[in-house]
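Summary of Year 1 activities. Much of the first year was spent building the evaluation harness for sequence design. The harness presents a backbone, in tokenized form, and records the residue chosen at every position. We chose the following record to illustrate the format because it has been used consistently in internal testing since the harness was completed.
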């Protein structure tokens, strides 16, 4: 199922800076969540595996089944919405390692030692610079010590988020919104690193800039599309929040997520924003 992926050039430099112990693996098949038996194959490639688990009351009864599996004691790698690169674990070293304190951060808990970064076959045929940016992004996230998934970010506030938006979003929409909000929170931390690449990692910096420029036209009419009901709120949030890491201007009402207040207060801020925003759409 897994083969080690060789790295060189700028992407290898980013791994050395932020997650020097990370194991990078190509996967034989695409996945959203790895089957338990397949996930356990990672035991052969890591020093230890410590599955995440969360209290039952963090996950509403009607939440999507993958979220219930993640909250259980079952070793879960990858979740819907992860895209072409997934990762698990946290780094033992690197320039950006720090303890999870302040800025609304939950305590860090990585499932694997060392961390693993998984590249899915869906990326075959994608531009090399784009794939390298996704890998570099994963190394930066691993090194920052942020949670692997939004449930580790929201913790018991995920139930509060579901309550806040339940009249407008179904459980799948709530999941999509939570993933988007977490993406924005992560982006507030990673974009500082990406911007610094301009000096000595020009190829990766150009890939970061290019991805942001491709998003900008899709954001220009997003507020109107949501107001007119042409774009679902959760889908609009997913698009807007993905732009935070590229440091480009967000439309209303998503601009309130591109703030120091969100970086500082984290999940509490996200739930309050969601509640006020959903109420304003009625």
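For this record, the design step produced the sequence shown next.
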């Amino acid at each position: 199922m897994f083969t080690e992926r060789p790295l060189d050039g700028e992407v290898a430099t980013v791994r050395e800076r932020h997650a020097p112990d990370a194991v990078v693996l190509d996967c034989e098949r695409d996945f959203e969540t790895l089957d338990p038996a397949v996930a356990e194959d990672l035991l052969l490639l890591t020093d230890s595996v410590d599955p995440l688990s969360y209290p039952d009351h963090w996950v509403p009864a009607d939440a999507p089944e993958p979220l219930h599996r993640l909250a259980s004691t079952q070793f879960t790698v990858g979740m819907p919405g992860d895209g072409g690169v997934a990762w698990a674990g946290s780094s033992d070293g690197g320039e950006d390692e720090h303890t999870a304190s302040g800025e609304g951060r939950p305590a860090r808990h990585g499932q694997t030692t060392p961390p693993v970064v998984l590249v899915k076959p869906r990326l075959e045929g994608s531009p090399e610079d784009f794939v390298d940016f996704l890998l570099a992004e994963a190394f930066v996230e691993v090194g920052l010590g942020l949670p692997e998934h939004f449930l580790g970010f929201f913790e018991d506030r995920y139930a509060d988020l579901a309550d806040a938006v339940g009249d407008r979003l179904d459980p799948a929409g709530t999941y999509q919104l939570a993933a988007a909000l977490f993406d924005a929170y992560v982006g507030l931390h990673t974009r500082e690193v990406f911007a610094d690449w301009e000096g000595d990692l020009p190829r990766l910096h150009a890939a970061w800039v290019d991805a942001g420029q491709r998003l900008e036209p899709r954001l220009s009419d997003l507020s109107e599309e949501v107001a007119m009901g042409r774009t679902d709120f959760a889908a609009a949030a997913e698009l807007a929040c993905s732009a935070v890491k590229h440091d480009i201007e967000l439309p209303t009402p998503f601009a309130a997520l591109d703030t120091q207040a969100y970086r500082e207060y984290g999940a509490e801020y996200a739930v309050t924003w969601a509640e006020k925003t959903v109420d304003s759409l009625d």
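The first strand starts at residue 2 and ends at 4. Quantitative recovery figures across the full test set are reported in Table 2.
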